[in-house]
Each structure stands twice: as C-alpha cells, then as structure tokens.
C-alpha cells in the first residue's frame, strides 16, 4: 500500500525495504570495535600513554602509602563549616575508592573517546586531555589525604 503523493508507507516494488541483511549490518556493532585511525593517531597514543602512567602512579600511591594499621579511621574530607570540626573521618575504603575511581575514569574515557573519535576527533582529544587533568587532581587529593593521616 503506497501513498503516491506523500511518498510514505510500504512500497512493494522495492524489495530492499524488506532486506534482513541491512538490519543485521546495523545491529552487528559491538563494544569492542575500535576504529583503526584511533590507535594510529600519535596524539591519541601520547594522551593514552600519559593516562596509563598517571593511573599507575596514582593507584600505586594509594596502595603503597596508605597504611590501615596506623589509624582505623581516616580523614576523608576537609570541611571548615561542618559543626565546628574541620576534618571528617571515614573508613579506609574511602581512600581505596580513590584508586578505583582513577581506574574507572581512565577506562571510561578511553572507551568513550574511541567511540567519539570517528565523528569528532577534537572532542575525543579533549576528553582524553580532561581525563589527564582529572587524574592529576585525584592523585593530589589522595596524596594530601594520606599525608594528613
């Protein structure tokens, strides 16, 4: 049934509308596929290398410097306006969650920027660069919280 004036609806004269192969081609896109140009871009490789180095440094800083035996509760935040005390204490899991945060952010940034790279190269580069900034800040925060203990 066709609508000749509006050109909407099903047209039996065109068999490509019923093609199952086209539907399978669009569904066959997996999460593991990485564009070849993404891994061949030198700037992307530089940023990914810096991210990997910062993740190793940050996670090793948290795991190696943090000692649970010194204090069962740790300082996890500095808040000058909270009921007279400036430091908020918490559990050691809060400090270890910074290491998990660094790993999660780096993996998520690599996955999302590889997806975005085909459409917008500069957006992918911005995402990787902002991840570097975020990893630097989280390493500084982890170092300062561990040194206060």
Describe this structure in words.
The chain is α+β, with helices and mostly antiparallel strands. The protein has five helices and four strands; from the N terminus they run E-E-H-H-H-E-E-H-H. It has a two-stranded antiparallel sheet with strand order 1-2. Helix 3 runs antiparallel to helix 4 (92-116) and helix 4 (92-116) runs antiparallel to helix 5. The longest helix is centred in the last third of the chain and has 28 residues, at 121-148. The chain is elongated and about 75 Å long. It starts with a strand and ends with a helix.
Structural class: alpha+beta
Distance between the termini: 76 Å
Low-pLDDT runs:
none
The main sheet comes to: 2 strands, antiparallel
N-to-C order of helices and strands? EEHHHEEHH
Number of domains: 1
Shape: elongated
Helix amount:
55-70%
Widest sheet, order of strands? 1-2
Number of helices: 5
Rg calc: 25 Å
β-strand amount: 5-15%
Number of strands: 4
Mean pLDDT: 79
Structure in a nutshell:
With 149 residues, the protein is an alpha+beta fold. Helix content is 60%, strand content 13%. It has one domain.
Which features does this protein show?
149 residues, alpha+beta, two-stranded antiparallel sheet, 13% strand
Explain the layout of strands and helices:
Layout: E1 2-3, E2 8-9, H1 20-27, H2 36-40, H3 42-65, E3 74-82, E4 85-90, H4 92-116, H5 121-148
């Amino acid at each position: 049934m066709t609508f000749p004036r509006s050109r909407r609806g099903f047209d039996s004269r065109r068999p490509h509308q019923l093609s199952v192969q086209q539907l399978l081609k669009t569904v066959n896109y997996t999460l593991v596929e990485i564009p070849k140009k993404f891994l061949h871009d030198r700037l992307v490789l530089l940023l990914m290398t810096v991210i990997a180095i910062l993740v190793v440094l940050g996670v090793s800083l948290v795991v190696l410097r943090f000692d649970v035996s010194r204090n069962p509760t740790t300082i996890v935040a500095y808040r000058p306006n909270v009921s007279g005390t400036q430091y908020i204490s918490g559990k050691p899991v809060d400090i270890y969650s910074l290491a998990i945060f660094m790993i999660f952010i780096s993996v998520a940034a690599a996955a999302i920027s590889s997806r975005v790279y085909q459409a917008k190269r500069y957006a992918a580069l911005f995402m990787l660069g902002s991840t570097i900034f975020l990893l630097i800040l989280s390493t500084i925060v982890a170092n300062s919280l561990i040194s206060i203990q």
